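Suppose a colleague, Dr. K., hands you the sequence of a protein chain of 764 amino acids and asks what its three-dimensional shape might be. Before reaching for any lab equipment, you can write down a predicted structure in token form. Begin with the sequence itself:
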Amino acid sequence: MTIRIVINKLTLTFISLFLCNVVVVAQNLADYVQPLAGTARATTKSATKHGAGTELNANVIPAVTQPFAMTQWTPETRQSEIKCLPPYLYSDTLFNGFRASHWLSGSCTQDYGSLTIMPLTGSLNTLGYATPFKHSEEKSSPYYYHVNLPAYGVNAEVTATLRSGMLQFTAQKNDSLYVLIKPNSDRGEGFVQIDADKGLVWGYNPVHRIYQGWGKPAGFSGYFVVKVEGGFTRRGVFRDGKNWFADTLKGGLNSGAFIGLQVKAGQKVRLRIGTSFSSFEGALLNLNTEITHQDFESLVKANKNGWEKALGKIKVTTSDERSKRIFYTAMYHAMQQPRLFNDVDGSYPQFAGNYKLLKIAGGNYYDDFSMWDTYRTQMPLFEVLEPALVNDCVRSMILKGQQGGWMPVFPCWNSFTAAMIGDHVTAFIASAYVRGIRDYDVKAAYSLMRQNAFKIPTRSDYVDGKGRRALDSYLKYGYIPLEDSVPDAFHKKEQVSRTLEYAFDDYALAQVARGIGVTADYEVLIKRARNYLNVFDPSVKMVRGRYIDGSWVKPFHANLKQSYITEGTPQQYTFYAPQDINGLAKAMGGPHQLELSLDKLFETGEYWHGNEPGQQIPFMFTYTSSPWKTQRYVHEILNDEYNDGPGGLSGNDDAGQMSAWYVMAALGFYPVNPASDHYILSAPIFNSYQINLPGKIVFKVVVKKRIAGDIYIKSVKLNGKRYTRSYIKHSDITNGGVLELTLSATPNKNWAINVADRPPSLSK
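The predicted structure, expressed as tokens, is then:
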């Protein structure tokens, strides 16, 4: 009897251990990622009220890739490289192939330098080949995608490395298999060449600029080389549905190459594809370096391991599986950009160059910075998780400035763009600097940023997208008056928003000036940091369009979109003074009036989460005597504006900014002022989490709560000591330690209300 009891105990122990192991396997972080989330029109609360047209699309794609990779591999449901048309939309029903994409994830821009590869069976069809597919027959993850194509009797799969990809087509019947290889040049400038002896297809797709210099050559192409394992028996080229036997084709719409072979049921055909922005040779070098002897399954495994490592920098504990899916999907989206631009040997196209190649001496060269969006949260997130990446990004910015003669304000397509407004490359570099990330030539960076802030470009440079828009007006009046319509910009007018954002950029640059001892510049810049007050009308306690003579625009519509505001309303943009929230509060009549204004914004439903300049707003209650309202509204936004369904992202994801907001808000710390070294505290949604920092340093957060409804901070401890401030410093995180938060279901209206416990601000 005793023996039987012992055996039962051992059996129970074994079962318990087995179940624990099962749970561990199920906790693979990459499998929480839902790449289809955000591929449909937004269904979130504020998006349906304030969004319209393309602003209702998150514009993300179900990318198979690696973090910050050169190329993303996506199923294609929309052909072409048209602005604001992502390669994949959830509502579509036809599959056009796999695209090697350079889509700026989540943005209303356009793809470039891409190619599409499409399998088909039966007779050759090079024009009307799109085929029906079902979402129920898709498998989508960051490291692998599969779709069944029943009309062709083919299972199609893809996985990826940083610069290369592998496709695998499995035949379901004996048939002829054809593969179309298309450089997606909307301008008919693509090129393909077949080398049958080596089983290779080469090609390129020239890149063109958009925004400033729209349509001009960008000075580089998207190059590719396709290697067909086992070779092929048929080959040719096509253009607009006409096919002929040849090995080379240049130019023409709907053009490319085809290869063909006979397959048997169950046979697998694999294609290895290398990509490059430098040359054919670079594409082949990337392919041969990144994909050597691996079969498809081992490459899938390696890619998954890469994502596990990247996502594992933050490990959360919660019983809420939905929140976990949203969180790791958000991390995945935030890691799509910036884009790796150099080959494995360091070669990359010169910024704003003319097909001139350079070689980076150390680290990597990056591009595709949607900087108006990402300086706010996405880049600060990487400043915590990936300081080495941030150093590479700043060095890349310095190279761009030196090669192009000016620091770009929104560098994409390896070109000047002058897209959006502001000068937020400056804000990003300053944010890295104030957080102690400085493995680059600080003085070189400062010289380029200073030029943007003080120098008026020549007419030809200005038209080309160099320098700050309307800087002459800004310097002359201390604001941009309505008479200056800013014609040489994609976003014209928007004078009040530009004034507000330049004031912040001046503050950011002032921090670097002070740090390197340029006192005279600091004094000028820190004075300019208060220029936001020049467009603040005390009579309405909001920002408002202003003329040269100082008069205010009439009539005033606080809650309607205005030409002098970027993608929003005066009421929404009034709260954009992240460098000086105390000063803004004073202009309104004091912290209590700031609180009332914030209350009104939320209570009337005027908060729009889909527009980045308002994303700091819910955290601004910490500058008043009611920080508990930050905890309330952040919790509501996390629940209302994010989901794991196809429509679960509120408006354009903008290169990962919207997703990065979720990551940091869910963790409970947020950079309201990105050019500072502190983060606003709110209540994390997880039971606990740990951030695995470089150097094996760990920052752990423990959340003590009784029920899911405990969303308010009752008390805080940092490294075992009582902590009363409503913010923490960057070093509190990066030095490692333990943050303990005790939560309750009702607000603690005495926590962090003292002025000394409120976050720093330009004004005291």
